[in-house]
Amino acid sequence: MAERMSALSGPSPSLWRRLDPAAALGRLSETRYWMYLLLVPSAILILAVVLYPTVYGFQLSFRQMRLNRPDLGTGFVGFKHYVAMWNDKVFWLSLRNTAVWVTFAVVIEFGLGLLAALALNRNLPGTKIMGVLILLPYFLPNVVAGHMWALLLDPRLGVINDILVRLGFLETYKAWFADPSTALGAAILVEAWHGFPFFALLLLAGLKGVPDDLYKAASVDGAGPIRQLRLITLPMLRSVIAAAVILRVIGLVNSPDLLLILTGGGPGQSTQVLSLYAFQKAYKDFNFGYAGALSVVMFVLLMVFAWAYVRVSKVNQD
Amino acid sequence: MITTSRRARLGWNIATYAVLLTLTVFCIFPLLWTLLTSLKYEADIVTQTMQYIPKRITFENYVTIWTQSGFPTLVFNSFVVTATTVVLCLITGTLAAYSFSRFHYPGRGALMLGYLVIRMFPAVLMIIPLFILMRGVGLLDSRFGLALAYTSFLLPLFVWMLKGFFDAAPKELESAARIDGCTRIGAMIRIVLPLARNGLVATSVFVAIAAWNEFLFALMLTTSQGSRTWPVGLQLMVGEFQLPWGVLAAGGIISIIPVMILFAIVQRTMVHGITAGAVKG
Amino acid sequence: MSTLTLNGVRKSFGALDVLQSIDLKLEDGEFLVLLGPSGCGKSTLLNIIAGLETPTAGDIRIGDKRVNDVHPKNRNIAMVFQSYALYPTMPVERNIGFGLEMRGVETDTRKRAVDGAARMLQVDHLLDRKPGQLSGGQRQRVAMGRAIVREPELFLFDEPLSNLDAKLRAEMRTEIKRLHNRLGTTVVYVTHDQIEAMTLGTRIAVMKGGVIQQLADPMTTYEKPANMFVAGFIGSPSMNFITGTLVRDGEHVGLTTDGNNPASIRLPRVAANLDALLGRKVVLGVRPESFQADGAAPDLTGTIDVVEPTGPDTLVVLALGNQTITARLGPKLTVATGETLGLSIQPDSISLFDPDSGNRIE
Q1: Residues within 8 A of B (CB atoms), C 23-52 only
Q2: Do B247 and B162 belong together in one domain?
Q3: FRET label pair with C209: which of A28, B74, B278, C200, CA 20 to 30 Å apart?
């Protein structure tokens, strides 16, 4: 093709064409491999910054790697970390806390999100602005969210304590995050505040895709609002719900941010979860090998969950 | 019959407003309270009787956080990291999204899924090796290194969201442009990108907010004032200096202002993009 | 000069053959319509001619030049798309002139050419508007303006009228025909609408399953369809197909229909000698408009099932043995459901097909 062009347009423009990077890129875009070439920059980035580190992380979990103890070296230690984990009480506690944390957070967030989506989907006058305000928490940083709620729930200055005392629900101010029996619950409340807009967002989009005729047909058939929800809305939203739950569970299991800011895993280990435990092992103890092993276990559990969840929701569909 | 259904509808309408009002208050109250706190004198915050409406207001907390800590540097660092992340995503992600949206080729579905699965990798699993790698190549504690790390986990979202916006532009437009004399890349730059302008902006804002807010990677991968971002800086200030509530609240408000402004501007397009990806995928 | 030749053009996606060895030769100034149902490969063929897709095998020649490896912009073609594909971000003027702009034509020359094309298509008052502000018909005109402004050797139309309502479609059809008469440029036109094909084409290529079923001028495809697919696809209501066996019927040849309730049809005189086919099983094809109500000496008699007056004429569905046929009869016909009706068939208007292959028997 290049020869043909130069034959048509004489030697000097062809030389110019060969030197011009824009024209060269244009010619490149006409080749058969253009669609793959477009992927190259992002693929390189992902390979270098995601895939390679992840593989590295896997093999790290079989090695000794303690940045503060260089004397131990970085030798291969086989399943040492995994065996240690099996005997680590904190690991089992974190696993249990993770399950509680994720389950309660997802259930509450889904409930609130569905409520918000159903209400917003009625499109009553004046509710549009509320829809925007309800979405706002999802876009706020964890650090700010954490400290806002720490302020609200503060044992000395917390306005929620004050309101609860005034209303007679509490005798005295309560140190929500310092009491092992309430710390995880309080953290879940903060997480619910931060995460339910995500469900509202996706469910609302799903609701907009349900044909109105279905509801008309159902009311002609005599189905009330509750039955319509159960027989039409929820089944029609099945795939959206599945996607939202999986994404949210991944997010909750993977990111220790909020708990790190709110409680740091305490008091005691009462709010310790797997991701936070792994992060602290790496960040505080510099025990990279053990932290790697913890995150590998986390990843495997997440994969198993995602696989099982997709299977179950598919089976129900048939 | 008609009266009962009208009454029933009125009941549902009242319930709808009640639900939305409660949720709105639930969502906004913490923000409002933080704003109020940031405007109070410290003496009015630490009192025996709670002041719901501040008796007097002051901007002293804002002055304090801005002048007596490294906050401006932190914000500047965050700005640089965020901008770098957006630019990296725009360059690499736009091309990838275009490829996924415009061409059908063997392996396309698998590749798209591959880009998505990346999001499932635990952050912690990536952070440790990234720490070691970045230390090895001298990118630890650098703003560019941090932006690179952000790009890697935000890129999949960026690509999927943008693909949705590209899909909305008819393919025949490129055919027409090619017959009119554009190359493939010419058709993309001259025709499709201008058309997907809103989508590009919304997707970039989404990524920008995520990068601006990010805490965990920044905590691990930055170690000095030179590259530390505001979430890490603010968190460390709380630990180190027993930061007074009013000052902390002022810092929080300052740092979420950009988020709120961006969110307000492209909220509609962005929400559309997020949901389109999730509802279809 | 602007002829188009396709030689053994094939296109497959993996194991799927979308086009199977297409051969075509188009003379200068011809208007070829590629007609077929969706999925028959007609649009793929058009895209291959345009250079938007590459053929798996075969040659494409425009004029004397083999253009297989030539970029679309260098093939000297113009294309009108189903969705019009007007650039939404550009005003009409730039839309029409974009091809010239990309070829480095000077602003003055370009402006003159755009004005001329716009005037010819009566969109000269819309030049400052964006495509989003135009009606469907106006967009269609702008899309055509964009095609003619470059004075290409070959026009390609990809179902250009399918997004218009019925009235506008008829209007634009006339406009396209007028344009072709005036410019005389060679055209390849893709459609699934047989009326467009009949009215516009100098030749029609009826396609199915990636194969050209018949390539002929419109009247031939209508009067002498090459096979049952072509016969059924062209004409509305569709041609009646009656299966039966050819028998001697006095001095005529007749058809006894299949089934346990056979009916007899007397075939009209045809040019071909049917005697050789006596005793053979065939499919008789008769167009609805080839019937006439005839009480005196009917070729066939059936029971009226449904009567559908359309205004200019009346469609009568008739039960004939175990089969039904549709006849298009004159207006103001006073017949009722359940009555018996005798019909005669116009001479030289029938087709006979082989029931196994579906091909026309001459």
Answers
A1: 47, 50-52
A2: yes
A3: C200
d(CA A94, CA A77): 24
Measured in angstroms, the CA of A4 and the nearest CA of chain C are apart by 9
CB-based contact (8 Å) between B114 and chain C?
Answer: no
The per-residue pLDDT for A210 is: 84
DSSP string, B167-233: HTS-THHHHHHHHHT--HHHHIIIIIHHHTHHHHHHHHHHHHHHHHH--HHHHHH--STTT--HHHH
- Residues of C with Cβ-Cβ distance to A31 under 8 angstroms: none
User: What is the C-alpha to C-alpha distance for residues A39 and B110, in angstroms, rounded to an integer?
Assistant: 13
Same domain, residue pair C208 and C300 = no
Query: What is the model's pLDDT at position A20?
Result: 77
Contact C102, B189 (CB under 8 A): no
Nearest CA in chain C to A8: C74
Specify the CATH number for the domain of residue C190: 3.40.50.300
Taking CA atoms, what residue in B is nearest to C146? B180
CB contact under 8 A, C69 and A1: yes
Please give the Cα distance from C298 to A123 (Å, whole number): 67
pLDDT tens per residue across all 281 residues of chain B = 445 577 878 888 899 999 999 999 999 999 999 998 888 888 777 777 777 788 888 888 888 888 888 888 899 999 999 999 999 999 999 999 999 998 888 888 888 888 878 877 778 888 888 888 888 888 888 899 899 989 988 898 899 889 888 988 888 899 999 998 888 888 999 989 998 888 899 899 989 999 999 998 998 888 888 888 998 888 888 877 777 888 888 889 999 999 888 888 888 887 777 776 555 54
CB contact under 8 A, B20 and A130: yes
Q: What is the helix (H) or strand (E) element at residue A230, kind and residue range?
A: none
Number of independent structural domains in chain C: 2
Q: Containing domain of residue C167, as a range?
A: 4-233
ipTM for the complex? 0.86
Q: Which of B170, B180, B191 sits opposite C73 (nearest CB)?
A: B180
Residue C123 in contact with partner chain B when CB distance is under 8 A: no
Q: What are phi and psi of A30, to 5 degrees?
A: -95, 0
Whether B44 is covered by a domain: the verdict is no
From the list A213, A242, A176, A202, the residue with the least C-alpha distance to A114 is A202
* 3-state SS assignment for residue C230: helix
Structure tokens at A58: 């896997």
Is C268:C348 a contact under the CB 8 Å cutoff?
yes
Q: Is the pTM of this model over 0.95?
A: no
- Residues C69, A30: C-beta atoms closer than 8 Å: no
CB contact under 8 A, A30 and C71: yes
Mean pLDDT rounded to a whole number for chain C = 90
Q: How many CB atoms lie within 10 A of CB A18?
A: 13
Q: Are residues C254 and C191 in the same domain?
A: no
Where residue C312 sits, what CATH number does that domain have? 2.40.50.140
Q: Which of residues 63-82 of C touch A (CB under 8 A)?
A: 69-71
pLDDT at A2 over 60: no
Measured in Å, how far apart are chain B's first and last C-alpha atoms? 44
- Mutate one of A4, A9, A31, A32 to test the C interface: name it (highest C CB count within 10 A): A4
Pick from A134, A147, A279: CB nearest B24: A134
Within a domain: residue B50? no
User: Nearest to residue A29, comparing CAs of C71, B129, C81, C215?
Assistant: C71
Residue A3 C-alpha, separation from nearest chain C C-alpha, in angstroms: 12
Mean pLDDT of A243-251: 87
Give the pLDDT confidence of B97-121 residue by residue, as tens digits.
999 998 888 888 888 888 878 877 7
- Give the model confidence (pLDDT) of B191-241 as tens digits: 899 988 888 998 999 899 999 999 989 988 888 888 889 988 888 888 777
- Number of domains observed in the structure of chain B: 2
